Amino acid sequence: MENTKNNSHKNILGIESSCDDTSAAILSNGKIYSNVVASQKVHEEFGGVVPEWASRKHQQNIIPTVKYALNKANLKLNEIDAIACTQGPGLMGSLLVGHTFVKGLSMSLGVPFVNVNHLDAHVLAHFIDGEIPTLPFLCLLVSGGHTQIVLVKENYQMEILGKTIDDAAGEAFDKAGKMLGLSYPSGPVIDKLAQKGNLNAFEFNTPNVDKLDYSFSGLKTSILYFLQKEMKQNPNFINQHLNDLCASIQHTIVSYLLLKLKKAIIETGVKSIGIAGGVAANSSLRDSLLKLAEDTGAEAYIPKFEYCTDNAAMIAFAGKIKLEQKQFGTLTDVCYTRK
Predict the structure, then answer these.
(1) Which CATH superfamily is domain 134-303 in?
(2) 272-276 and 299-301 as β-strands: parallel, antiparallel, unpaired?
(3) pTM of model > 0.85
(4) CB within 8 A of 283, min separation 6: which ones?
């Protein structure tokens, strides 16, 4: 859809609906003026996102969220010059709500839309505002569904140097939290409790995976078997050692993540590093990245908290880049669940 009433694409509307958060943002003249997120609390009691409910909630939330984003930016809908939306990866039902909405809105306004890869947008969140990383840039992308080491080259071209071969780090946090009886999502809860615990209290094994790839399924199994063994001897073991368990589990995951990132620094020689994705909000990971940068002589970049979780600001910014490259979307484009 290359028809556009304004080739400058001054005002860009971003839409994010890859999982359970509905988000809309306005990027105007390269600056974020609003970034609204409507979260879904309905999934907490089930210990994970229920896909059907997530898509239905997106249907309810998307129009009010867009209206709120426009109001915060002091814009009217007919002042939008282009739209950017998440095409994938994510939950198919959730993606379809946002993607279909954007196609229809694009047609009615007579403006172009662009498809954005959700993972690329997380990495590009570093370049929205604040201290901008120098290129080339190594980014450790850590979320509930993905774990990757990404090399960002000139013109924002990306190369995946390593990824998880099974589960993601964020999932490991949540599954460990479920074993400990914590609420969902468990990552932030573990982070809070870990601050009162001893990170060296317990040891958990991490797999030796080739190259720069990760694996977290074995770690989850290690935690499960350890807890089952200790609970047989002492049914109150978890309650009595909860802070130490959280600290040790978090330390294991963070150390494993940064072990491979350090290897990537050595192999590539890139000294501009950062983290992205929901787990990038973890305090231990943020502190450890700064320590790694100090030890390796690298420059560390950490995104704002609002750009770590799923948000439309990163979609709008990634869309801006695709608009500049004239990578317009079409009505025949489809969503995808995996990268």
Answers:
(1) ATPase, nucleotide binding domain (3.30.420.40)
(2) parallel
(3) yes
(4) 191, 195
